[in-house]
Write a structure and sequence with these properties.
It is a single chain. The chain contains three helices and five strands; from the N terminus they run E-E-H-E-H-E-H-E. By secondary structure, it is α/β, with parallel strands linked by helices. Strands 2-1-3-4-5 form a five-stranded parallel sheet, covered by helices on one side. Strand 4, helix 3 and strand 5 form a beta-alpha-beta unit. Helix 1 runs parallel beside helix 2. The radius of gyration is 14 Å and the shape is globular. This is Cyclic-phosphate processing Receiver domain-containing protein. InterPro entries: cREC_REC. It comes from Streptomyces lunalinharesii.
């Protein structure tokens, strides 16, 4: 197997209950899976994190957002290049964007 001369492949994580997210290297389908996924990458750089607000039933992205906010509050924010918020729920998406921007994460609204 040849070394990748341009360095390691980007880490692109997605937390979404339905979308395939073809660029993602790993996808979590629930907030609980999303929390575990972020904790697995706690000490590494995440190039992109894609978040959907509504995760089916009563589940939402808010437990993941809380984890990210607490990490930043404790002085150890997750190292993420860009957080993309893609959601059919405009109010929920705006809540996520506002919450994470407040903690200096680079956040953008996106369509997935």
């Amino acid at each position: 197997m040849k070394e990748n001369p341009s360095g390691p492949a980007p880490v692109i994580l997605g937390i979404d209950d339905l979308r395939p997210l073809p660029r993602a290297t790993r996808i979590a389908r629930t907030s609980g899976e999303g929390i575990r996924l972020l904790q697995e990458h706690r000490d590494s750089f995440i190039d992109e994190l894609w978040l959907d607000h509504d995760l089916g039933g009563d589940d939402s992205i808010l437990p993941v957002v809380t984890l990210m906010e607490e990490a930043a509050f404790n002085g150890r924010p997750f190292r993420i290049g860009t957080v993309f918020v893609h959601s059919a729920n405009p109010i929920g998406a705006e809540t996520v964007v506002r919450s994470l921007t407040r903690w200096n994460y680079q956040v953008r609204r996106a369509t997935a």
